[in-house]
Amino acid sequence: MTLYSVGDSHCDYCFNGIPGLQVRWLGPRTMYRVGRDGLKFLNLKTLGMKADDTVIWSFGEIDVRTHIGRIRDSQAVDLHKLLERLVCRYLLVAIINRELIPGIQIVISSVVPPSEKITREDNTLPFYGTLDDRVGLTRSLNSILETFCSYFEFAYVDVYNPFAGPDGALPIQMRADLLHLDRRFVPIVKMQLERALGYEIN
Questions:
Q1: Across 96-100, 115-119, 161-165, least confident range
Q2: Strands 54-58 and 3-7, how do they pair?
Q3: Pick the CATH number of 3-197 from 3.40.50.1110, 2.60.120.200, 1.10.10.10, 3.40.50.2000
Q4: Positive or negative, the Cα torsion across 18, 24, 61, 35?
Q5: Nearest in space to 148 (alpha carbons), one of 90, 64, 77
Q6: Cα distance between residue 104 and residue 51, in whole Å
Q7: What is residue 70's three-state secondary structure?
Q8: Residue 178 has what pLDDT?
Q9: H-type helices in the chain, by residue range?
Q10: In the chain, N or C terminus with fewer CB closer than 10 Å?
């Protein structure tokens, strides 16, 4: 059995350092893209994963930072319906992967706490909305993720609540940089993962 994390950069910062874990960083990709492109984008068999492997999926921070609030406001759509549709399409791809590789375990990671707005030199994936708004979006998205993971029988690992400050954001003393959880906190992530899996990782 091999333990993997796949996803955006948070699959590395949050999970790299857990014993035996291999990181498969897929670039600055979104939960939306997973749901839109399906197996053309995320096929665990193509990535070499097999039955009895455990794979953590880590997506969603970019969706919150850049896209969800903008779509909600520009299209005047109901936020709850928007998030449910995003999560359903995302988890459908996880279900298809699980059926393609009987015996594989897919663990769905929550979205990490957001950080305050910054100006990036290249202006890629810009911040949209206030910090309070993005905190609310993160909490709402994570709540729906956790509910649907329970329904579809996916383990869910919480990397939000252990690291959120009183304002719901990622405290500066816990950051590796402008966006990411510092690797010093990977042991806490490991404990959260063990709680989700129901066994210790050595």
A1: 115-119
A2: parallel
A3: 3.40.50.1110
A4: negative
A5: 90
A6: 5
A7: helix
A8: 85
A9: 10-13, 31-37, 61-62, 68-75, 79-100, 131-152, 186-197
A10: C
